[in-house]
Amino acid sequence: MQHSDLTADAIVLPKVVTPDHPLVPKLSIEEETALKNHIKDLLKRNNAVLVAHYYTDGKIQNLAEETGGCVADSLEMARFGMEHPARTLVVAGVRFMGETSKILNNDKRILMPDLSATCSLDDCCPADLFSAFCDNHPDHTVVVYANTSARVKARSDWVVTSGIALEIIKYLAKNGEKIIWAPDRHLGRYIQSQTGAEMILWPGSCIVHEEFRAVALQRIRKLHPAAAVLVHPESPHDVICQADVVGSTTALIKAVGNMPNTEFIVATDAGIFNKMRQIAPGKTLIEAPTAGDGATCQSCAHCPWMEMNSLQKLAHILETGENEILVDAELAAKASIPITRMLNFSKMIRL
Ligand code: 13P
Ligand code: SF4
Predict the structure, then answer these.
(1) What's the CA gap between 207 and 209, in Å, rounded?
(2) Minimum CA distance residue for ligand 2 atom 7
(3) DSSP letter, residue 194
(4) Which ligand is nearest to the CA of 184?
(5) pLDDT by residue (tens digit) across 134-148?
(6) Helix 74-83, helix 329-350: angle, nearest 10
(7) Burial grade of 297 (CB within 10 A; 0-12, 13-18, 19 or more)
(8) In whole angstroms, what is the distance from residue 90 CA to residue 112 CA?
(9) Which atom of ligand 1 is nearest the CA belonging to 53?
(10) CB count, 10 Å around CB of 83?
(11) Residues contacting residue 54 through CB under 8 Å, at least 6 positions apart
(12) Is the pLDDT of residue 317 over 80?
């Protein structure tokens, strides 16, 4: 088939290779404290700030906050990095987060603990195939999730994160625009159902959220009838249908703090429990069930790429300057347009 004939049904996604969960050497309390102090010192010496995602190891999240950095969702990570005066941003998360930081901060050095920490959404949306798909629907506005490569972002009209996708699509639909949405089909379907927008969906998915299972969730809800169900919208439709709250990582964390319930069943990466426990220490958090358990599930609700971040690697990159994220300047300039459009839109709606 010619690329020029490419319709959504005809897309054959590349096979995503999931890494094994990394084995992180266990440290004694004394060793861990010494390592954290070493990283704190290195951050100062490098004029660097640590920006971490909620799915990374709790130790990294806490260190980011203790050292004046931030732990946040992908939208806030991008905003924080732009506004902070540090010359080096150390991004603990997955590759697209470091790339977004570089695109927005061309004059800063961006380091990441592991450059092979990718994301199944990014991997299932190769730029050439995606570009051909867009060329085949020239009358559509191209909206891509932040979980994509710089080249895919550069081919888009808007970049969105789960924290702002709904508002942006509502706005575009109101203007009568037809939309190409990529790469997460579950998030796309959810947004379509909420907005009524005319959308063509790229058939990608997140291997972590895709493993949550509706039937098993029904069972666990029966055991905990007073629990509120919190679901990230990258989860399958029949899981989302059972949610009391559907939202970005930040929205789910806020729900734990604000809702009167004392029990929550949470369908997203379990790294998020670190922040949830901090803001609501007395509440009970239950992991939503996944496709299997132990050796039989692919992710077991832990993103294997987020797990590639470790304290040891943080120290290493700050000592050596290795793992710098570089994005070609011309490409970065193109990709920054749809990201900046999102950031400006989010400022406008916050006002
Ligand atoms: P958030 O934008 O909600 O932080 O999500 C990012 C992500 O990768 C979810 O899997
Ligand atoms: Fe990507 Fe899913 Fe991991 Fe988020 S949890 S980084 S969407 S693979």
Answers:
(1) 6
(2) 206
(3) H
(4) 2
(5) 999 999 999 999 999
(6) 100
(7) middle
(8) 6
(9) 4
(10) 8
(11) 61, 71, 72, 73, 249, 250, 253, 269, 271, 272, 274, 275
(12) yes
* CB-side neighbour CA atoms (13 Å) of 63: 31
Q: Which residue's alpha carbon is nearest to atom 8 within ligand 1? A: 147
* Side chain identity, residue 286: I
pLDDT tens per residue across span 25-51: 788 999 999 999 999 999 999 999 999
Q: Which ligand is nearest to the CA of 231?
A: 1
Atom 1 of ligand 2, nearest CA residue? 119
Q: How many residues does the chain have?
A: 351
Distance of alpha carbon 213 from alpha carbon 292, whole angstroms = 9
Is residue 180 within 8 Å of residue 202, measured between CB atoms? yes
CA 183, 187, 188: angle at the middle one, nearest 5? 70
pLDDT digits (tens, 9 = 90+) for 59-76: 999 999 999 999 998 888
Of 310, 257, 313, the residue nearest 285 (C-alpha): 257
What does the buried/exposed string (b/e) look like for 224-243 if buried means 16 or more CB atoms within 10 Å of the residue's CB?
Answer: eeebbbbbbbbbbeebbebb
Looking at the DSSP assignment, which residues form a beta bridge with residue 195? none
- Residues above pLDDT 70, as percent of the chain: 96
Nearest CA to ligand 1 atom 3: 248
